Amino acid sequence: MVKDSSWQAKAFQAGNYLFLVLLSLLCVVPLVHVLAMSFSRSTEVEAGLVGLWPVHFTTDAYRFVLGKSEFLESILVTLKRLAIGVPLNLLLVTLLAYPLSKEVKVFPMRTYFAWFVVFTMLFNGGLIPTYMVVKETHLLDSIWSLILPGAIPVFHVMLLLNFFRGVPKELEEAAHMDGAGHGVTLFRIYLPLSVPVFATIGLFAMVGHWNAWFDGMIYMNHPNHYPLQTYLRTIIIEQDLTVLSAEDAISQYQNINPRTTRAAQVFLGALPILLAYPFLQKYFMKGIVLGSVKG
């Protein structure tokens, strides 16, 4: 009976490993295929000859995408957005989550503010009112129009709020007995204990700012103010080769097409996040679990 149970456990474990390997392949193989298309000539891509390896290797798609000054300008806009937006997100989320994590006897208005915050998760003002607010506050065509409307992601507040609730109250009580106020308690006790959840919401904020394209399209009036994803979307649609001479355009069209340039843009857009994620991975799952909503 023991042998049968041990055999069943091993079979179950092997089945789990096989399932996870197949699931991983389902995720990785399409990305490898897209990468191969980005390095392949357009004629082979259109003929369906590209699998998991480039056919007639060429970097023309990447040179076409990277060859415009607007691309470098859009990267600078996105990097500026990250440099301002992510720290601002973390700061404002922290300042909102900390008081909401307190009990009603400590913060009597906590329940009302908590419901106000939850309400914003269920309903929003809509696109036109949001645009009117941005316009009337003179934020159009500025970096702040990309940052301030989403400066406090409520989902991040909920993660951090529930994590703060799990911090032993004896630590806070001991700090108060030593004369520490709420500011010292927050920055000297809560924040050092919150590295996993901060890494998690920091990654979420980074991905959100990096991948955002719609706000750049509606709030920016000049293409040189576009963030990266808005710029990439624009060249996907336009496929502008008019700056080339006739011979160069013909040669370019032989090596690239909308499919190869889209494939190149996918990896150019995802590469920074793919590079950053491994450094935050050890905190990611821990932060999600510790900051999840508790029953």
What does this structure look like?
The protein is mainly α and 295 residues long. It has 2 domains: 2-38; 60-290, Orthogonal Bundle (MetI-like fold), CATH 1.10.3720. The protein is built from 15 helices and no strands. Helix 1 runs antiparallel to helix 15, helix 11 (195-211) packs antiparallel against helix 15 and helix 13 (228-238) packs antiparallel against helix 15 (258-290). The longest helix is centred in the first third of the chain and has 37 residues, at 2-38. The chain is globular. The two termini are 39 Å apart. Residues 240-248 and 291-295 have low confidence and may be disordered.
Short recap of the structure:
With 295 residues, this protein is mainly α.
Supply database-style keywords.
295 residues; mainly alpha; MetI-like fold; cell membrane; transmembrane helix; MetI-like; transport; membrane
In N-to-C order, the SSE pattern is HHHHHHHHHHHHHHH
| Distance N to C terminus | 39 Å
Q: How would you classify the helix and strand content by structural class?
A: mainly alpha
CATH architecture of the largest domain: Orthogonal Bundle
> What's the domain count?
2
CATH superfamily of the largest domain: MetI-like
User: Looking at CATH, which topology of the largest domain would you report?
Assistant: MetI-like fold
Number of strands: 0
For the residues shown, what is the average pLDDT?
81
Give me the Rg, rounded.
Answer: 25 Å
Low-confidence stretches: 240-248, 291-295
Pfam family, one: BPD_transp_1
Membrane topology: Multi-pass membrane protein
Family: Belongs to the binding-protein-dependent transport system permease family.
Transmembrane segments: 82-100, 112-131, 143-164, 185-207, 263-280
